[in-house]
Amino acid sequence: MSKQSAVSNQQHLHRAAAQRTVQVSAILETTFYVRFAETDLMGIVHHSQYVVWMEEGRSDFMRRKGFAFDQWEAANIGFAVSELNLRYHAPARYGERVTVRTWIESLRSRQIVFRYEIVNADSRQELVTGTVKLIAVDRQNQVRTIPQEVQKLLAVSG
Amino acid sequence: MSKQSAVSNQQHLHRAAAQRTVQVSAILETTFYVRFAETDLMGIVHHSQYVVWMEEGRSDFMRRKGFAFDQWEAANIGFAVSELNLRYHAPARYGERVTVRTWIESLRSRQIVFRYEIVNADSRQELVTGTVKLIAVDRQNQVRTIPQEVQKLLAVSG
Amino acid sequence: MSKQSAVSNQQHLHRAAAQRTVQVSAILETTFYVRFAETDLMGIVHHSQYVVWMEEGRSDFMRRKGFAFDQWEAANIGFAVSELNLRYHAPARYGERVTVRTWIESLRSRQIVFRYEIVNADSRQELVTGTVKLIAVDRQNQVRTIPQEVQKLLAVSG
Amino acid sequence: MSKQSAVSNQQHLHRAAAQRTVQVSAILETTFYVRFAETDLMGIVHHSQYVVWMEEGRSDFMRRKGFAFDQWEAANIGFAVSELNLRYHAPARYGERVTVRTWIESLRSRQIVFRYEIVNADSRQELVTGTVKLIAVDRQNQVRTIPQEVQKLLAVSG
Q: D75: distance to nearest CA of chain A, Å?
């Protein structure tokens, strides 16, 4: 999908996010409570924890797109994390519910960039934004191509 | 509440658990997906993770009983973990949903014992069972008494 | 090794621990700083973290006994955690160094019980004590026997 | 410090890193074993774990510069994580020792950027590189200025 059509798509679907980023998939939301163990002595969620939440958003995205982990395994596709970027805007705290908003920012034959927006589930205050770049690899950790039909399923339609 | 009436209560409500333990509260269930980050190189959920899940079961129990964390803080009651016991029956794996079944096994003026049964949410296979003993403390970490009305709210009625 | 000789051994080596437990191996110590991420909003180390530290004590014990993980793998021996018991005496805090004291409490053909004492590395204050029971399994997760020569190497001599 | 003098300094000390980054402090190294609990079902260290290691490198850096955490607290200076960027080059595995190389890339009145290079402690293979941007805040989470004398102690001389 071209960058242009992605921009066009996001204009209709997700205005707020669209102002900042391109998007080649639906935005899916995953909501859960902050766990006590996720906090640190500053009284807030530890900054490493958002990386785990982003991964959970991605897992949920894949499940809802119909890709269970055992299917990836059977198809001999794994995804190695290549880059990670986070911006911290406000802290999450124990007792709050957070929503991870997950979408695909770019999808190429051998890599996917997911973008995230983590917000307070109730106030919708923005807490953390970020991206993760994944490289498709086989069991021998060699870079491989994501099959066309998988690329289609991951991309925009819903 | 006497041990006898607790046993009587659980006979009606929760037969399987009743065979093994007494119970002075309802059993509340909390269900979620296993996170990728919770696994280890054996391909299963790391054994320390169940301790976090038990705590999340306890948090959910408290929330549904109407006790938000900030209320505990305002009332100057905290709970210090005093003992932890787990038995591992079968491993949880990524891709599965687990259910943490949480109830109070004993409730005394200064301590609570929670009992847990963690099962596969779909097959109901038993994965881990355990208990945690909590001591009520104030902000200065001094042992204190759990107010009568709190004890009543935590106990059996639902 | 008989229970008696274990007791005799520990009398010379480790008086404090000897008062409570039998011991069929040397006690090895592993010391490290508390990590910031290991704390929670109570300002202390989260209670699940001691389980990870006990495992790290066990890893270090095995390494110093000459058993690298790849050797276990090559010998098709894994260890599944079967039981976990912890008693919390005092909290560890960020900025402190802790020492995990690890020894084998019982060693049978198919299972090992490790006992731990986690202390403040400087004051030697006791923080947490506990045990973990491990079952020897092969790659198919079937219970198997720990080879005689391995049992000998793990046991008492140093 | 100008980029040029930083490069000059690091040429003598740390050639590989010098090619990519400026540096306004010494590079300090912190070495430890990978923990079993830090791995995931891919058999490698989970990508969120490097964030914790970077923080541990930073803690060690601060300790060796003479700043204990309670001194920061007493001085009413905290550091809020503002940005995090990681590049993953090769995975760490259980059984390996890793070295976190930590230095200050930029130091301004209200923020510090730490840069990290995480390498295999034995082969020196590069595993992960990254930066974290910290904002100096007081107890009320208001941005504040890092005292001049602290800035001097953190910066280049050793």
A: 15
